[in-house]
Amino acid sequence: MNRTGAWTYATATAHAVVSDGISTVAISGIVTPAVACQVLADNARWLRQTRAMAQVASYQFSNVAVTSDALLSSAAAHANDGLDVPTALLVMQDQFDLFDGYSSLMARRGICRAPLLEWGPALSWAQRQAAVMEQMRAGSRPAEVRTGVAWRPDPR
What we know:
6-stranded mixed sheet, two-stranded antiparallel ribbon, globular
């Protein structure tokens, strides 16, 4: 079953859909620090409500007028409130460094982000992350078997 959502901000809009455990959200317009904070708050609520396992967040149709640190500040407030979902950040080439920096800052907090330039790889990454999250929520370790001493990849 697909669920959809839409949000309107002073200078941007966001549209979301979740299907098969993967959320896709597209942000368009001008993303200022205030708008980024609102988008991230609404996205955290969306991810919590839909119980999505992973997400693709597209900023390809937005002008991002915010720094990596400002994005982190906005995201940190919601990290334990839904934004801990692994997210592929679909961005344009000129946005890549900004989102790469943001992803590194999020990783330091244990939150997985991956900036990517094309839809196919972004969706594939999210699908792999969703499979891992599903297994983790079920209480198992993905593609691993337990030995007497340590975890190792399943040789199958």
